[in-house]
Amino acid sequence: MGTATDIDAQIDRIEADGAISLDSVDFTVPDPRRVRKELGPALDYFARIEREVERNVLELQVVLPQADERTVRFVKVWEEQELPHGWIFDRMQQEVGLPPSQPELDQIGRTLRLAGVLSHVPGVHDALMFLYLSIGAMHERLTAVGYDRLRERVLELGMPGFAQTAVRPIRAQESMHYAYYRNAAVEQRDRLAGWQLHLARVVRRHTYVPVGATTAARRADFGGAAVALVGGRDVGALSEPVQRVAQELLTHASDGLRLPPFVAAALRDCVDAHVARQAVATT
To answer: Which Gene3D superfamilies match (predicted)?
Structure first.
């Protein structure tokens, strides 16, 4: 079976899995105050990034107007699954006395609009497609690792029902999304010329931020979520799996090239921003 057929089969499986129904989720919370205090930043961040998929779809249409049918097919089912994830976390926030998330749904930055213009330049579209697929894989890996930590935390807080009916199936869907992005990125990378892969590598190294952390305030938000998930400022458990994805996708193993730890640096910046904001709030 060829690579393209494998990827099409992956999309078949994602479509067959469908969306998670809110009615299937156990929202029982024995200690809302403790959950609000210990997990509030993480719940809000998960809710926001999942709901911002609406904007991500618009961004794809701007940046890659020539996206192939397979990509369009995946994005459709991806959006149909990711949005209910956000609604689940919004509902949990209500259960513990927090306001719903405030996602940014219609603001597309000038950099992305410029990329959309450049996508019509010969050779650039293929590099942009690879950037889209590889960052998708990195984001999905980070999200999946975050859900692993979240499951541990909600079990500690006495919420096995939520862990089983929400976090577990959401994590499973994120794994399927990651597998699609990873395999499609490898396929696309192998079509690129050396200069295209080098361009993508430089852009990713110098522009990487964690999923959803696209402004200074959002980076501090992510830092707060990361600290809540890992229980401290050492976020290596979150950054290392994502760095491995970057190493695999942005280089050829035969080249012997080792990427600098840019993922860890980006996550540390987010934690530092969170700590700095907390310091200001307490003075």
So the answer is: Ribonucleotide Reductase, subunit A
